[in-house]
Every structure is written in structure tokens, then in C-alpha cells.
Amino acid sequence: MSDKDLIESGDMKIGWVRSHMPVLSIIRENFEREQPLKGHKIAMALHVEAKTAALVEALALGGAEVAITGCNPLSTQDDVSVALNTRDNIKCYAKYDCCSDEYYEAINKVLDMKPDITIDDGADLIFKLHTERTDLLSGLLGGCEETTTGIHRLKAMENDGALKMPVVAVNDAMTKFLFDNRYGTGQSSWDGIMRTTNLLVAGKTVVIGGYGWCGKGASLRASGLGADVIVTEIDPIRALEARMDGHRVMSMTEAAKYGDIFVTTTGNVDILSKKHFEVMKDGAILANSGHFNVEINLEELTAMASSVRTVRKNIKEYNVAGKRINVLADGRLVNLAAGDGHPAEVMDMSFANQALCVKYIAETKLENGVHPVPHDLDMYVAELKLKSMGIEIDKLEPHQTEYMEGWECGT
Amino acid sequence: MSDKDLIESGDMKIGWVRSHMPVLSIIRENFEREQPLKGHKIAMALHVEAKTAALVEALALGGAEVAITGCNPLSTQDDVSVALNTRDNIKCYAKYDCCSDEYYEAINKVLDMKPDITIDDGADLIFKLHTERTDLLSGLLGGCEETTTGIHRLKAMENDGALKMPVVAVNDAMTKFLFDNRYGTGQSSWDGIMRTTNLLVAGKTVVIGGYGWCGKGASLRASGLGADVIVTEIDPIRALEARMDGHRVMSMTEAAKYGDIFVTTTGNVDILSKKHFEVMKDGAILANSGHFNVEINLEELTAMASSVRTVRKNIKEYNVAGKRINVLADGRLVNLAAGDGHPAEVMDMSFANQALCVKYIAETKLENGVHPVPHDLDMYVAELKLKSMGIEIDKLEPHQTEYMEGWECGT
Amino acid sequence: MSDKDLIESGDMKIGWVRSHMPVLSIIRENFEREQPLKGHKIAMALHVEAKTAALVEALALGGAEVAITGCNPLSTQDDVSVALNTRDNIKCYAKYDCCSDEYYEAINKVLDMKPDITIDDGADLIFKLHTERTDLLSGLLGGCEETTTGIHRLKAMENDGALKMPVVAVNDAMTKFLFDNRYGTGQSSWDGIMRTTNLLVAGKTVVIGGYGWCGKGASLRASGLGADVIVTEIDPIRALEARMDGHRVMSMTEAAKYGDIFVTTTGNVDILSKKHFEVMKDGAILANSGHFNVEINLEELTAMASSVRTVRKNIKEYNVAGKRINVLADGRLVNLAAGDGHPAEVMDMSFANQALCVKYIAETKLENGVHPVPHDLDMYVAELKLKSMGIEIDKLEPHQTEYMEGWECGT
Amino acid sequence: MSDKDLIESGDMKIGWVRSHMPVLSIIRENFEREQPLKGHKIAMALHVEAKTAALVEALALGGAEVAITGCNPLSTQDDVSVALNTRDNIKCYAKYDCCSDEYYEAINKVLDMKPDITIDDGADLIFKLHTERTDLLSGLLGGCEETTTGIHRLKAMENDGALKMPVVAVNDAMTKFLFDNRYGTGQSSWDGIMRTTNLLVAGKTVVIGGYGWCGKGASLRASGLGADVIVTEIDPIRALEARMDGHRVMSMTEAAKYGDIFVTTTGNVDILSKKHFEVMKDGAILANSGHFNVEINLEELTAMASSVRTVRKNIKEYNVAGKRINVLADGRLVNLAAGDGHPAEVMDMSFANQALCVKYIAETKLENGVHPVPHDLDMYVAELKLKSMGIEIDKLEPHQTEYMEGWECGT
What we know:
The structure is a homotetramer.
Chain A: H1 3-18, H2 22-34, E1 41-45, H3 50-61, E2 65-69, H4 78-84, E3 90-92, H5 100-111, E4 117-120, H6 124-131, E5 142-145, H7 148-159, E6 166-169, H8 174-197, E7 205-209, H9 213-224, E8 228-232, H10 236-244, E9 248-249, H11 252-255, E10 261-264, H12 274-279, E11 285-288, H13 298-304, E12 307-312, E13 315-320, E14 323-328, H14 334-337, H15 344-363, E15 369-371, H16 375-388, H17 398-405
Parallel strand pairs in A: 1-2, 1-4, 2-3, 4-5, 5-6, 6-15, 7-8, 7-10, 8-9, 10-11, 11-14
Antiparallel strand pairs in A: 12-13, 13-14
Helix pairs in contact in A: 1-3, 1-4, 2-3, 2-15, 3-15, 8-9, 8-15, 15-16
């Protein structure tokens, strides 16, 4: 495609999602009018596709200078990247399927802008800032982190006394994780799997690794598509929840024997590894919806395989002792690497939180460490979202508030 | 029924649930062997039915002297009450359908034992201790509270500086509220409604007041039974969750026009009141699953009604301007007042928490105020439960723990 | 209870369901006005509970003389039976828990009226007419049959050339089996199981024997209540449907090892027998929703058991080699023998078909053999039902009818 | 793409689905060995994508000469078409997005082979044979028809006395319509809608036009994805089913006001037309899953629109009085025109029926008219499918068969 065609395609995609992100649109309008980010430099490492572009636009319109790169080599959409580069005050360095060197070089380029605010999805920028670019730390007001995995990493840093900047845990906003991680991952993972395989979900045994919010969403939609769902967990309480939700629960070593399709959502390594590949059925399909491509141990799988070949776009077949094991999107997050990522409406809420938290960082002196999203921002996002959906809910009447605050009425 | 028949019937009911409460059974065996409650006096106000009896037995076998009464006039099962009174070290004062005076008199009798530990479901004992029986406060090591409503009341007291004893918020244990409030209330409310009405749930418009854990459970089961569900909320985030779960969300004033069956689960007053009764359809059915009978304003309904009559056991028909409005179980919690309460398996987890928290109070010097259930107790209950269900789950391998604790691996 | 109390209780029950059977109510009003059954004598053997009573009343008000008995010893509700006997032109002989002799004696008494029309649920009257009471055959205009099992039996008779009267297969009306067998059995079976056991369905492995309309309904509701469902079948197409609906499918010999609760819905014998009891888990619960109590082989179970005792109302525990196997309602249909039967709204449709078919038999000279319900009656019931629910649907416009009847428009 | 690349891509796609069509694979092996189609000429008009190619290969390997073209201008995948043309005894004339003239010219080319057997999806070949190519009718042994719409058209012809050849209604095999129409259309429609829009289904109001098997499948999956579903129908019985399945049911004129996404599945014209467009909400999304592109009246929509533009691949936005109405895939079947069609596993069953029915036509002298698929073929497909899924089911024991055939056992 020519650059002109890429721009047109990117613009069209961005336009489409923008019209389905009403909360972010309101914030963008406010930003444009009020210029709360005037003079700020924002470095971003996020999945560069249309919804992200809508966030980038809003930040730039709010007065900021923005530089962005990808947070996963396979999730960048080049048309969106090229289109972003046509905007004022925006520089995008992301490229689809770039090699590891290019990937980290792009991160460095983004940081070369000397940002005072960062937005991460997986903490790659912050990690780079704390290792090779420590010179930039002093200039930082704070960062936002988008994903469970990133928060986990940042809290580990904080526990080790290694975190030298304030970070807002955007992922932990209720209007983020309850929706994006659950309904977003739930739908987009299966969208990715269905379009990539053209196989029937109904009547399949689906194994979901992990029953956090992403795993809950993936399981809910697997059931909704007619699958027989098995869940694996390490947390006994989540394991009980999975069972009470009607799923079978067992160890992965056991589940590996039964699964037709596997989806990992844990944020941990080696959820599927040698001992599991050994007992899988011929034709098993493996997909990952976790942030990093570490959940399926492809090194071990490759070592076991007598041959590897592409059998459909985004599907690699590993021949292991006569069995075919099919890996989608090289174990990268299947919803982004083999799809268009989360639906626009959930990213509307997630990125509304991002935009509001960037403003919050710009306006607030935060201590180093991991901070929650202020509850009133969270509620504001929810209220705008409801309004955009045309939904009116009840308000407490004074005597109801009084009852809830009182304690003297009993049986 | 003769006393002998009552005892036999009560014993049979207790025996049945005991064999379906494996976690509590393990704890009971440990208690019997280790006598951790030796010398303690436990005052209880809980729904006196078979599962509660199993808890009472465990506490008494653990060495305690126990006195118990009901926490709702319509939830007592007399056979269970009579059977409990045949046990050593147990005194039960609960009576079905007692009047308000008898109800509070029984609470006083229970307190007359001079307890050092209390167990409440709705905080009635603690309220009495803080008003009329303040002389007993000094002897108290602490109390346990079973329900969301009670916790709410106690936190209101704490905020007012009025709480003069330590209380463990058993309701807030994950192995309690995620299961009891959701799957327990979900099933038992509909069990109560179905057996009381013999009407079809499928194809009905069901309005659920509130989308907390109880409301989520009631909605989930309503959908599972084929209903078209409308949810009302005051919290915008919960309202969004309800919508994303496929339900319609609107104000109660609007929902009141459409509902065939209404179930309130909010813990607040006047969820259904005059303005709602006015617009309801002929034949509407009203049930409450919240702790107190304040959610449906029966005073207003009675004032509006030209006549009230019983049309089936536990169903009162109010004739309002030619429309029939049917109230189940006088607006008392429908699962207990018109059924047998939560399934034994969820009460197994809830009451395992109660038993462990009583021991915890007996062994620990707690400050005045509301305390969480220690996480290790919560996990212990989950682990025993999984084991009793024959479910084995994964354990983290060392390199997985290391990965989760580290932060240096990225994309 | 005194007879007066019984009558009052029965009248109340009948009144309640009558107000929830709007289609039958319209037919009753028409019958009362038009007297289409004037001079006819109708013998009935149906489950004598409130919904059936509403049908009996409609027939009597339509001019008929009606005699009725039960079609299952455990499904009669005595208060309804007594109340029916207070009506003009109605004689009811059914008694709860009567012995086999009484049961057949009552059938004979009903036939003593020399009916010209019969209504059966399971074909017991017709079987008696073709064996011991063949003298009455010549006086018969025809009969109606309510249930799959009865139709099956009658078609077997027809195939053998043994059927000597016309019978209308009311069960096979779409407004009957699609609703009564599916949504009716689905809900009422689980209502019966839940109220009888007070156990949690969520997280249980439920085994459904058969995936006909009753089995589909029972499975749908089991899933809806949070169970993990296994289906057994002998028909490969139904087995595939069950699998595509997300259930596991296997032989009963295999399923018997995993089930916590078993529900049989096949209409055949020995769905659960010795070889299954042998491998069941301790605590397994067995319920039957099929017409006859032949699906669970209690003779074999009794022979295997070292002891049998009642452990809760309507639950017998068989001790088999140290395992407890719990049988609900002695293997009689659990929704009627341990509950109130199908919800009123589905029986409204089933019994509207019955009433209309009785009229059809009265007005039409039918050949001996099994006849379908005329399609226009079926549609009439559906239309009245929709209307009673306040639902308006689309009508074909003339050019749409034309399109559907044409064949000349293509791609 | 070069032809070599197209062939490679097509071969890869065909290889993938072939390995997921185990029943067709067994039939292909039998065909290859037994050559049942030796000397036969088969003309086909089907959606030319990978699953169809697998059928074409099986027929050619069975000895037939095969010519094929598309049955919808937007459902052809050119790589598959080119790859098919590399096979012996196969000629493929289909081209993606061809104009109407090319479309009908290709149909003529296919018929030029002088077939003795036809396979249609929508009856286009048969219609052409009965209008412009009647000379070929005498040479025909019979045809197979794949879809509800085609059967409808053929029965209309039969009723008019216009059908001059035998046709087997493959659509009406239970192993076809219960699976392909329900689970196939259900999944693939939503796959198409999700990948085309990248919008969230959860929390949307989805309107399904029609509640036949396709509509049931589309509704089931919409609910499973978290939508709030409204169904429109003209048949009162289906309308009641939809309501009992928990959906709202109303006229399309009413539903048009509420829908966020509309999916038509009726086989009729003008399901969505001017009066509906007028009341739709801004942003409404319209998709068709019915066979022909007549269900959404695009002519009326175009006439009402002030502008039409492409806003995303396969999405046209019609600006109607300031509202944006988005039409997917120009109202062509969304699962094929904006996706890869049904999952391989359901087409395995549908096309196994096709292959077996072609053989049946080749071996059987059929009368002119529409014939059912012989029941034993249907059962054979089901049995092979179960076997391929590793599922074993129960067999009737002799005494169970006897019971089912007998009629002398009663209560």
C-alpha cells in the first residue's frame, strides 16, 4: 500500500473508533478547550492501533507533545501508525513485526523526547527508564500503567525499593479492569480465535489458564459460544468461583489431555510447557491472551517439534511425535496480534481513565510509588459512559442516605 | 406435631445438612479434639434452621456454652429449634412467627448468659449491647457479623465512634460473600419464589433491585431460568456491569411498569414504594432478599390497598385500584421465610468462617472496631472446600514464583 | 386438616393458578357461554393438582359431566381433590399415596360413568378400556393423551393394530411439547430437587438421562443454575445437539462415576440400574422426571442396599457398600411428587389444547388411530397466549407473502 | 497476488478445513476407493470458499467431473477458486465481486457441461434450468439443495407444478439444519460482525429478525456475547419460544427504535425498510444473515440517504436525516461476505450430507419433486461425527427396546 493509502486507511479506522468512544470524545473536547496538558511531553508505549490513536489525539489536542511506540511487535497496525504521524505534535515510531532491536530502538526514540509523563502497557518504558535511561527519571512527574501485568511488575519494583517515580495504576480503576479485562478480553480473544481458525467453538473443550478478570471474561464468552470450559488456577478462591460458575477445574497437567483450544490469561510464564504438550490431543489449538508471550513456552515446543509450518494465516503447526499442535499468532496476545484488539467501547473507558490520569499527574505532585486512580475520576468515567448509553439510574433519596448512614434500625 | 416428632424432624434436617457441610465438619472434629472454646460463652442471633444448627453444634463441641435466638421472626424452623435444645451446652430461644416483643425478649435472654463472644446476622445483638445492655460490653472479647447489612451498620457505628467492641466482618471474607451472597442468594431466592408461586420464570420480566453480590446472584439465576432481567442501581459502575451482563438498566420508577416479578437485594429502605406500586402491572409479584423487611414499603402498600387477602401460602394479595399486587412472605427474606435458606454447601463456607473467627477472637486480643477476616483463614476455608469437592489445582513452580516477584522480564 | 380446611386450601390453590392461566380462562368463558360439551361424559386420569382442576372446571362449565382420578399415586394433592368434589358435575376419586389397588379401583370408578371422551396422561384409562373394560369402547368418541410416554404407548398399540378408538396426540401440539416438556419440566424438576434437598446446584456435576424436549429443558436449567452438565443419549443426533450446547456426552456407565445429581427424562426403563449404582459416588442424588417410575431401577437398588432410611422429607438414603445413594420421591416424577408440578403458565397452554381437543372430538367424527392436534387449534392457543402476555408481533405484508410463495427471485 | 501465491494460499486454506472435516474425509476416502460417481457430471453453484472446495474435491475423487461457480457475488474467495482449478476434473468459474452479468454467465458456463446432477445453494442453477436452459432438464438425474431459502423456492415451484426434476432437500437433514443453520449461522454471523466492526456486543440491544434455526442460533450467540436480545417474528409459536428463551419480542416497527445491531435471518424481503430506518437510532448497525440480499431494503435506504460512504472495510454509512446507519457487507450474508463462512466442523456435516445425497441420486431413480434426505444417511453422518469427536453413547438393551415397543406396562 502507498503511504497515501495507508493514511487513508488509518484515518478511516481512527474515525470509526472515535465515533464509538463517547467518553473519550467528551474529554477530548474539554482538553481542546482547556489545554490542561500545555507544555507537557508524554511518552507512550501502547498497542498502536485505532483506539490508542484516539487517545493520542486527545492528549495532543489537550496541549501535549506526544511520542509513541508499540508495546508488542505484532500488535502495531501500520496504517494507524502512519496516519498518526500526520497529526501535529504527535510522533509515532511503531512498526508491525519489527525485530527486537528495532523494538527497543523505538522505545529509546520515544524517550529521547525527555518526557515528563509516561503511559505504559506492560511497563516497558518505565523499566527502560530505571535501567538504561535513569538520567530522565528526575524530569518525570509520573506515569500511567494500563495492564495487570505492568502493575504487577511495578509493585514488585516498589517492594524492592526500586521504583523511582510515581505511577498511577490505571488498570486498577473499576471502570477499567471490570470492563476492559473482562468483557474486552472475553470478546476480543474469541474474535481473534474465530477469525483466525474458522473453527466451531460450540462442542469444543476449551481450557482457560487463569480465572482473574481476563480469564473470567474468556470463560464467560467460551461458554456463551457453546464450549465446555475447563479452568486452571493456582488460587483456591478463584478455583472455587470457576467451579460455581459451572466450569470444570483441574490442574493443567490433567486439563492438557482434554483441551481442544487453550487460552492463557495468567500473566505468568510456562502455563503451557513441555509436560503439557506431551499429553495434548492431535490438533490442539493454543492461544495466549496474556500481556507477554511467555505463557506458552514456544522454545520447548520448538525443541520437541519435528517440523513447524504455517497452515493458515497466523497459525503455526508444530508436529510433535505425529501430533499437530497449532499455535496462534506465535503466542502473542491473540486479540491484538490476530485481530483488532478490544472493542472500541471498552477502550473508551480505559482510555478515558488514561486521559484523566495524565491530567491528574500533570496537576498533582505525587510521591514515588504506585497510586490508585482517584475514585471520583473512576465514577466520573462511569457516569459519562452511562449517559452516552442513554441509561438513567436511581439516585438515593435523603431518607435512604440517612438509613444507610444510620445503624439504629433493626429487625 | 409433638415435641418428639419435632425433635426427630429437626435432627433429621440437621443430619442432612451436616453431611453436606464438609468444611465445617473438619473444623468440628478439630474443635472437639482441641477444645479451643473451652470456657467461652457465645451469644448468637442467626436464622435458626438446620445449617445454623450445625454451626451451633460445632461451637458447643469446641467447648463453648452457646445461647441462640433468631434474627428474623419468620426464618426460624421450630423443629430445629427444639432439636437444638436437646444438645448439651446449647440453649435456643427462637420461635417461628413470634411477635416483636417475644423477639426482643429472646434477644435479652440470650444476652443474659453474659457472653464473651457474639455472632450476629444483622447486628441486632450488638445493637442491643450498645443500647440497653451496655453493662455487658466490658466482658466482650468480640463479635462476628454475618451479613452485608450488619457490616454496614457496624461501620456506621464505628464512623460515629459508637462501636465499643471488636467485630470481625465475616461477611467480607472472600469465601463468604463471593459464594453465600452470590450463589447462595441467587439460588435460594428463586427456590423460594418458585415453590411459593408455582409460576414460570421463563418469559417473565424480572426486576432486580441492586447489583451487589446478592443482586448479581439473583440476576444470574433469573437469566438462567429464562427471565428477561431489568436491574436498578444507584452506583454507576454496578449499573454498567449489569448492562454489560446483558440486562436492561433503568430507574425503578421506569422498571416498575414492566416487571412481572420484583426482587430487592439492596439493604436499603423503600426500594419499592408508593410511586412504584402506582405504576405496576396487575399481578406483579414482590419478593425481598435483603436482610431486613424494609425494602418493600408495606405500610404504604397497605394504605393504598382496598383489600388484602392470602391467595396462596406465603402470598398476600393487595388490591390497589383494581390491580392485584402479590407480596411474598410479607416482604421478609424470601429464601428463608418461604424456603429453607441458602443451600448447605455455601453455608458450609460461611459458617466455617464463623467458627474459625470465633476461635480467632477467643485467641486474639483485638482492638475495638471492625476487623477483616485474616486472609489465611479465608484461604484455609477455600482449600478445605476444594479438597472436599475432590478438586486439585496447580501450584506455582519456583521459577513461576520468581517470575511473578521479578520485574526485569519484558516484551 | 378438616374437610373444610382442605376445601379452602384447595379452592385457594385453584384460584391462584386460574388467574395465571389466561388462555384456558378465555376458553372457559367461551365454553360456559356456548356449552359445546353439553351431554358429554368425560373420564380423566391426570395429576390431580390445581392446574388440572382448572381444566376440569372448564370442561364441566362447558356442559360436560366429568369424572377424574390421578395418573400417579404420589402426584395427587388431597385438598384439590376434595375441593373439586364440591363442584357441580365433577366427581374426583384421586387420593394421595393410595396403594396400587386403590389406584386401579379409582380408574374403574371413573370408567363406570361410561364416558364418551377420555383424557389420559400416560394412557392408563385407554389401556384399561382395551383390556378389562372393552365393553365401553363402542361408546367412545375419542380420547386425548397428554404425555410423550402415552403417545409412545398408543402408537405402539396402533402399530400392533390394537387401538380401537381415535386418540388426539395433545402432547404433540407445538404449543404443548415445545413449552410444557421443555420450559415446564426444566423449571419444575429443579424446583422439586432444590426444595427437597436444599443443596446447591452450582458447581455440581449433573447427569441428565435423555436429550428430548424434557431432557433439553432439564439441561438448560441445570446450566442456568450453575451446574456442569453431562448428557446421556441413545440417539446420535440428539447426542450431537447436547455436545454443541456445551454439555459433555458419554455413556451412562461412564457418567455414573461423575454425577452428583442424576435426572432421568427418557420414558424408558432402567436408565439407572445396578451397574450404574455400583460406580456412583457417595452421596449421589437420583431424581426422575419421566412419566413412569421405571427409569430408576429401585428393585435392584433395594437389593443392593444394606439399609434404607428417610433422611429428609421425600429423600430415601440407600446404603450401598458404605456409599449413600439418595433417591428423591421414590423415583416418581420429582416435579409432581416432590413439588407442585409444572408452572401454571405452561399448563395454561397444554390444557387449552386439551379443552379445545375435547371439543374437537365432540364435534368431529374421527377414525380409530392416533391423530395430530389440528394446526389451527395449535396456532389459536399461541395467539391467545401472546395476547395475554401483551406481545404484538409482525404480520406478513402482501408483497412479503407473495415473495415467500414465489420462486422467481434469486441472487 | 500472483497466481502462484493465490494457489498456495488457496491450497493452505483447503488443507486446513479438510483436516477439520473428518466425516467428509471418510466419505472422500470411500469415494476414492469405490468411484461411485464415475461417469457423472456435477454442476454446482455454492459459496466458493475452502469448505466447499473440500466437497468439490471429494466429488471429483469419487469419479465425477465437476464444474462450479458461486452462489453469491461477495462470498467467493479467489485464492480458493484458483486453487480448485489446479485439480483434475474440476472447473471453477467463480470470481469475487463480479458484476451481475459475469455472475449469470458463470452459471451458464457451469451448465454448459451438461450435468446429470446439480448442487445448489439458493436454487439458482435449478431456476436457470427451468427457464433458459430447459433443454438440459431431460438429462438430469436430480439435484441437491443446501439452504432453507432454496427449499422454500423449490417447494413453491413444486406446488405450482413447475418443478421438472427430482431434488433432495439436503437442508432438511437433521444433521444439517440443526447444526449448520443454528450453531453455524450463530457463530459465523457474530464472527463476521465482530471482526468487521470491532465493537462490543455486550451491553448492546441486538434485534434478530426471525426465530427459525438461523435466528435461534444468532440469538443464542448474541446472548452468549452479553447482548440484550429482541426478537421479531410473524409466527406466534416461534414468538413464544423466543420469549420463553428470555428475549423480548415485539414488532420490528417497535424494535427498530431500540436496536444497536440488527441481524436479519428470515429468508423474506423488506425485514428492514423505510419505516424502520426512519425510527432507528444514530449509529445503528445492520447485518443480514439470510441467503439473499433482499432482507434489508437498500434501495429505500439509499433513496433516503443524503450521503453514503465507506467508514471501515465492509461498512457503508448511510446518512439519513443526520443519523448514521451502518450497513455491513452491502446486506449480503455477513458471515460469508465479511468473514470465512460457517466453521469447518458444521460444514463437515452439511457437506457429508451433500456428498452422500449426490451418490444417492446417482444410484436411485427418483421421481420429480422435492425429496427428503433418507433417514439412514442422516444417522450415518451423525454417527461418524460422534466417532470423530471421540464420543461414545448408550445403546438400547434388548429389554429396553422391548419396553419402548410395548404398551402394556403402566403406572
